[in-house]
UniProtKB/TrEMBL annotation:
PANTHER family: HYDROLASE ALPHA/BETA FOLD FAMILY, PIMELOYL-[ACYL-CARRIER PROTEIN] METHYL ESTER ESTERASE. SUPFAM superfamilies: alpha/beta-Hydrolases. GO terms for molecular function: catalytic activity. The lineage of its organism: Bacteria, Bacillati, Actinomycetota, Actinomycetes, Streptosporangiales. InterPro entries: AB_hydrolase_1, AB_hydrolase_fold, Carboxylesterase_BioH. Residues 26-135 form the AB hydrolase-1 domain. It comes from the Bacteria. This is Pimeloyl-ACP methyl ester carboxylesterase.
Length: 250
């Protein structure tokens, strides 16, 4: 495990690293996840072996620190991730983002184009996430205080054992603020940022998931959209071989 200081208060992002040659691959997890748990199986397959790979945990999640005063919005995460990559000596990386992590990596590519040479997005969050439907319970159903008191426990009971295994490692404040960051979106939107980037971009969607909204517009903007068979939202876990095949493409 390695780390880099990313905030003035001393807070550090930590990551699990696979040694190899460059250019680096940087993997970023989704909300309530942890990078090594989601990416190690795929990133160690023979097709991807031999490359320098960093599986980074965003602030508030997994192995990284949990600063109480951090905003945890998409741009906040992107700026902290950029500092971690600077600390690791990474530039021109192939950056792989899952779900919320995909949105963070799009913001990263927009704000620090020197760090990202290519984006591989596994069902990245492209649009503002709507509030929970009436009668349902989601993270943004709670105030920050309510979520810290018992809301997170209710969500952990709801999401099932696999997601809960990594979600319980998250700081409740970080998870809550990150969820509101996804609900707020960005101006311009993450979708617009992605469409305006001028680097190779691949958007992966699981065949068991809903088709991506605006697929034709994404493809018209040069985004390569690929459906992965036998996979839902967690593509790298559901079909690691097919995921690795897409990452390996140049």
């Amino acid at each position: 495990m390695r780390d880099a200081q990313v905030l003035a208060d001393g807070s550090r992002i930590r990551w699990v690293e696979i040694t190899g040659t460059g250019p680096a691959r940087v993997c970023v997890h989704g909300a309530g996840a942890q990078a090594a748990a989601y990416f190690t199986q795929a990133m160690t397959l023979p097709l991807l072996a031999g490359r320098w790979t960093l599986m980074m945990d965003l602030l508030g999640f997994g192995l990284s620190d949990r600063p109480a005063e951090f905003g945890y919005r998409l741009d906040d995460h992107a700026d902290a991730l950029a500092r971690a990559m600077d600390g690791a000596g990474v530039s021109d990386a192939e950056v792989i983002g899952h779900s919320m992590g995909g949105a963070v990596t799009i913001a990263l590519a927009h704000r620090r184009p020197d760090l990202v040479s290519r984006l591989i997005l596994a069902e990245a969050t492209l649009d503002p996430v709507p509030p929970p439907a009436p009668g349902s319970v989601g993270i943004t159903s709670f105030t920050e205080a309510e979520f810290a008191a018992d809301g997170m426990d209710r969500i952990l009971d709801q999401v099932g054992p696999s997601w809960a295994a990594t979600m319980r490692l998250a700081d409740p404040t970080a998870l809550h603020r990150s969820a509101f960051g996804l609900r707020a979106g960005a101006g311009p939107t993450t979708r617009e940022l992605l469409m305006n980037l001028r680097i190779p971009r691949t958007f992966l969607v699981g065949a068991l998931s809903q088709p991506p909204a605006g697929r034709s517009e994404l493809e018209g903007a040069g985004v390569r959209v690929v459906t992965i068979p036998d996979a839902g939202h967690n593509i790298m876990l559901d079909n690691p071989q097919a995921f690795a095949e897409q990452v390996a493409q140049h």
